[in-house]
Amino acid sequence: MKAIYLDNNATTRVDPAVVEAMLPFFTEHFGNASSAHSFGAEVGTAVKAARQQLQQLLGAAHDHEIIYTSGGTESDNAAILSALEAAPDRREIVTSKVEHPAILSLCEHLEKTGRAKVHFIGVDKVGQLDIEAYRAALSEKVAIVSLMWANNETGTIFPIEGLAELAKEHGALFHTDAVQAAGKTPISLKDSAIDMLSLSGHKLHGPKGIGALYVKKGVRFKPLIRGGHQERARRGGTENVPAIIGLGKAAELALGHIADEQGRVRELRDRLEKAVLQRVPNCIVNGDRHDRLPNTSNIAFEYVESEAILLHLDRNGVAASSGSACTSGSMEPSHVLKAMEIPEAALHGAVRFSFSRDNVAEDVDRVIEALPGIVEKLREMSPFWADAEKKINDSKTVFA
Ligand SMILES: Cc1ncc(COP(=O)(O)O)c(C=O)c1O
Questions:
Q1: How far apart are CA 44 and CA 23, in angstroms?
Q2: d(Cα 332, Cα 305) in Å, to the nearest integer?
Q3: Annotated catalytic residue: which of 61, 136, 325, 326?
Q4: Which residue of 145, 164, 233, 370 lies most exposed, with the fewest beta carbons within 10 A?
Q5: Ligand 1: which residues within 6 Å by Cβ?
Q6: Which of 203, 210, 352 to mutate to test the pocket of ligand 1 (most atoms within 8 A of CB)?
Q7: CA–CA separation, 395 vs 380, rounded Å?
Q8: How confident is the model at residue 400 (pLDDT cuts 50, 70, 90)?
Q9: C-alpha separations of 329 from 81, 226, 307, 326, 332 in Å
């Protein structure tokens, strides 16, 4: 039985063309990009070419606006800490309640240690930002706004350009975590109000442990990692050359695949959703119907535990993930779904299916074949479902 991978928001398969591009940089071209001799020069040239591939993906004005990092988490941390250091008279941060832990845990830490006041802006039922609360939080005290381009759990896309423009009115820097958006949705930073943007290699069919931070020309940047003069003294440490080459190649391929993501991949996702909603009673699609990543579907099955569904899907050769994080044996519902105020009965039953260009129609067929029976069987065992079934007249809530 072919294993079906529908957890591409967690990580993606490295494209074989990416591996091929990387390999010579382990053996043949092993020089240090900073060395003055020919071994260094050829590697330096390749590292620059990769930067230009990223520049293309992001529609950035200059390749030197790209700083290589170890991934999305480092990029996010570097952006926020730089902004606080660069503007000592501004001690506030604005972010949202639905950000990735790479942002949330840093912001919580900064608040706990008294280094910044943080405004965690809420969202509505489809995961869209509370714009009134956002406007109210903005002031001349804000050093940086950090809002994600697209949510990793639901795929909801924030109107990022407009949000960046509002931040500018108050002289605050604007950073976006585009780890899930890059390569799935078009990005053009050249004439945008976005000052900084994070992305990660392993979310776009590149290697793990490599990412980038875009910093617009003219924005003051204070390095997170100090050391040598690599990355124009903005990120110390010998460059991870093979990974950088892989990231560049992945960016080039991703740019070429955006139309496929927006077309074929979206159709696969929509077909799955439609079939599940038709065949399984009492499920909710979480996220914004219109402004959503084309590859992401978060479906909450009322009165079932997502972990149980995932286990049974896995036995059927299908890998998906839950919208909730499992902490120390107790099931903590997802902070994203909690912020969206998803009904209690559905909060523990959310399953995220995230597609990629590797998926085909048969993958969807396999899920559709297996899922209704799995949910039915689990509900039969649930005392809550027996009670609920009496009350519920089989009404399906779509995009609650
Ligand atoms: C939205 C978002 N931000 C940041 C990260 C962290 O990226 P990395 O794994 O490269 O550190 C992730 C990874 O899941 C993510 O989905």
A1: 16
A2: 11
A3: 326
A4: 233
A5: 71-73, 76, 100, 102, 148, 152, 177, 179-180, 200, 211
A6: 203
A7: 18
A8: very low
A9: 33, 38, 12, 6, 9
The answer to whether the CB of 290 falls within 8 A of the CB of 346 is: no
* CA of residue 72 to ligand 1 center, whole Å: 5
Residue 320 CB contacts under 8 Å (≥ 6 apart), including other chains? 6, 7, 310, 313, 351, 352, 353, 354, 367
Structure tokens at 73: 């988490």
> For atom 9 of ligand 1, which residue has the closest CA?
72
| Structure-block tokens of residue 247 | 């990231």
> Quick check: helix, strand or coil at residue 77?
helix
57: which strand partners?
A: none
Question: Residue 397: pLDDT band by 50, 70, 90 thresholds?
Answer: low
Domains and CATH numbers, the chain: 4-9+258-399 (3.90.1150.10), 16-254 (3.40.640.10)
Q: State pTM to two decimals.
A: 0.95
Question: Is 107 marked active-site?
Answer: no
CA distance 399 to 258: 25
Q: Are strands 196-200 and 173-177 parallel, antiparallel or unpaired?
A: parallel
Terminal-residue alpha carbon distance, the chain? 36
